[in-house]
Design brief:
76% helix; Tetracycline Repressor, domain 2; Arc Repressor Mutant, subunit A; 214 residues; DNA-binding; homodimer; mainly alpha
Chain lengths: 214, 214
Amino acid sequence: MPDAGSQHPDAYSDTERQIFDAALQEFARKGRDGARMQAIADAADINKAMLHYYFRSKERLYDEVFAFSMRRFMAAFGESLGAAPTFRETLRVFIDGYVDFIRDNRAVMQLMVSENLAGGSALGRHLRRMQEAEHALPPRVLVERIEAAVDAGEIRPVDPHHTVLSVISTCLFFFVTEPTVRVIHPAARADWSEFVDARKEHLFDLIYHGLARP
Amino acid sequence: MPDAGSQHPDAYSDTERQIFDAALQEFARKGRDGARMQAIADAADINKAMLHYYFRSKERLYDEVFAFSMRRFMAAFGESLGAAPTFRETLRVFIDGYVDFIRDNRAVMQLMVSENLAGGSALGRHLRRMQEAEHALPPRVLVERIEAAVDAGEIRPVDPHHTVLSVISTCLFFFVTEPTVRVIHPAARADWSEFVDARKEHLFDLIYHGLARP
DNA sequence: TCGCATGTCAACCATTTGGTTAAAACAAAA
DNA sequence: TTTTGTTTTAACCAAATGGTTGACATGCGA
């Protein structure tokens, strides 16, 4: 499973990478405030002082991890969207690529969710900055594909914004609640990876039929 | 908006209720570890010592808040599911009721998500206990309705477990990521409540067409 | 070899955090 | 009024937490 776009900022040294990974994991699980610097240091197998040597403070460390993760998360939209002839194929490819991305980068998504739970102040700041810089956010590309498919009469006339939100919801939510899903869903408990693949099928089937012309 | 099932355990005094509410809010936003006892005390407008007078420790407070919230959350499935003649109506009523429940109890859902992010150890414990006691978890009722609708030929032959998970995903996820949605989605920014209602329509439309026979 | 920049660490510090205590209000029965 | 039990509070404490420091290592060009 090769990464599209590296896991860490390019200029990082080995130590910085270790710290970054450990911090991402810890922030993703415990949230900005719940995370413990000592826990990050332990997971990165370095002295706590190193954290402050490389990333001044907890706040700065969080900011760096969050900013990079958000760029990565946003970039995933475009990367998951190949050039397919039909909308049907476009949807299939997107679900496949996007779900794979989350499977390989669960912590990134957890961090995004965690920020939302906490009120999303950092998130709002970064989003607005992105919006100003690029004039529109990445999910836009998906919105446009759906608009085009509607215009071409390939699918029913649906609200593209709502539809995109629904697609993302279904692709992400079962990862968010993975522990619950593992307990409740027999198939997920037995083999998570297989379950994820089955879920791709189901999602495509459900959403495609939900959009297709009668 | 009347509550089906009270917001707090019945036997609570006024002070306990204040504490419970404040704790739920704080735990929902910051997570089990990120939450601060002082912040809960401040929000409940009481002395910090009262927290320990009524709920011994942070751990016990969290357990009590979590256990009650989870029962409430699970009960919402059944409560949102009226007795409708067709599956079409059943789906409509469920989405409507369930989304309303989350709108009125966002913190409860946030707490569930937060637990999942953190690994869901408390969640797993409680779920398993419920499973043993009741032989099946509440989402079961929805699964059964879908199975019945499939058997009756009212909808396409879909996997009911996957379908339920998809319905729940779409009903919950936009609440989970409300801060993000508010920034990205123009309509949500303007009037959230109206957006939620529009979303109910969209979700019903998308999912019903996704399930209906061609 | 020396000097200097970069990394690394144990020990330390100030503040915050969960939690306790002993005394004071308060209320209702005796 | 006295007594008895509950509720509330300010002051306090030990441990944990984010953050600092000064010494020590390591590599490398001069």
